[in-house]
Known about the structure:
The protein is an alpha/beta fold. It is built from 23 helices and 17 strands. It is about 45% helix and about 15% strand. The relative contact order is 0.13.
Amino acid sequence: MKYRSTRGQSSGLSFEEAVLAGLAPDGGLYIPQDALPRFALRDILSWHGKQYHEIAYQLVRPFVGPEEISDADLLALLKRSFASFTHDDVTPVVVLPKDSEDGAQDPFYVLELFHGPTFAFKDVALQVLGNLFEFFLTRKNDQEASKANGTTNGAANGHAQHAEHTITVLGATSGDTGGAAIYGLRGKKYVKVFILHPKGRISDVQEAQMTTVADSNVFNIAVEGVFDDCQDVVKMCFSDPAFRDKHKLGAINSINWARILAQTSYYFASFFLVLRQANVDVKALLDSSKSDEEILAALPKIVYSVPTGNFGDILAGYYAVRMGLPCVSKLLIATNENDILHRFMETGTYAKRMKEAGVAEPARATLSPAMDILVSSNFERLLWYLERGDSVSGEEPAKDDSLASKASAAVQSHMKSLNTTGGFSVSPDVLERCKATFASKCVDNAETSDAIKRYHTRTKGAYILDPHTAVGVVAAERYPVESGTKVVVLSTAHPAKFPEAVLEAVGSGVKYEDFAPKEMVEFLSMPRKCVTAWTEGGDKMVAEKRVREIIEDEANGVDVFGKEYGKPTKN
Ligand SMILES: *Cc1c(COP(=O)(O)O)cnc(C)c1O
């Protein structure tokens, strides 16, 4: 499988190249260049009973050349990645009674994606990505070492005369997602990770989770300033080619292809878990002489409701459907008040809200902060398929490079318009194609909070939704389905990650310790490791200087945790 950019200027990359690059040089996102694999119904059903990592292996294998990662290595890598999840099903499905008057409705199925090391769904992808980085860098270094050994005629020390292949991951977090990155990369060979957060502006739980990681390749930097400053500092570092190349800066943001690919696994795994809950005898179906149509008629329809920010989670569902995942009748985009996707579905126009010409409104701060985005980066990938004219039935169009070029040209023009005017519109047929697979709902703060409370009451205190999952639940409640259709709500975080919103919703009588996993409580009292970049009252240029100094110092062997970077601002 080769990879190409959505914007058409970059193609022919291997999986490894696409994964290590992240974003394409033309600003586009990498997507498969060859036809997507499509599994036959009976093949998929035959995965029934397989372990999670074995299902993931089936899905990932066609996307990675066997010369890049062998069968045995790939299986081992995926097994290791999901071994850090604490639940036997990795991503279990639990039944949540639907809040109905008569109690006769089908329940919701909550797909809990938060049993990884940081209790958030991003662990699924980042555990895999961290292992991929380590695998590829180790292989590169081993290859160079053996080359060097060969040319030096087996010189006694055998040390390679080349600079080591390494990567320095640099990222910014408002608190929600930095932890998953750190846990994905901690202890990985040839990888260092620097995560910037705004000093004193993330919750104590979030700070504790990130800064109690003791591995020597993990560097938390608290920047005196706000989240946007952190993000700008990261951008400034990346836009300096000399600095970027010297430290081999890398990013692991949600546009990385490997993350989307890894996330297809829970759509397939949950399909089997839902069939188990619905008492469908898959083995009997397989043993029968039924045709595909007859088998499908015996299976329930499924709607997936997905709390959506950058569109990575739900895009994995789209790929899953394209790869043959049966029974999916709709993918429901659940947004909070940052609803650019919902407005697109309603109107065919994808546009930021503008304060005035040329100035976009900032993202709104909601109860589900991991979805507080202005634009959804991964939407560009879906747009490419829609513009190419791919049909919803999931059949790949005949190989036609002119269609691919046309799609890239359309995406390029849309993205340009998004940058210059703040938005773009698609043609009615493109919107129709989108609506064949997707629907959308926008959920506000009051509804989110209310849902947390209602389900807490309804389950007599047994189940607490996190605010992101609550957005998915409310969207699902408002989306009408035929009787018998199973509705799966993707749960993207453990409620203990967002204690303020949860405690506010469920009211007095519930304490944090009542629902927080013991690890999360323990984090709070563990020693923290973090270096502060003081900025003389929040000066961004000073912040950049300090962060570079920290990265430089560390590369030169300085213990950055034992040094001062600026002085606390006196006021
Ligand atoms: C990142 C995140 C989301 C949104 O996922 P996308 O892939 O960006 O759509 C939802 N909930 C939580 C808790 C997250 O961390």
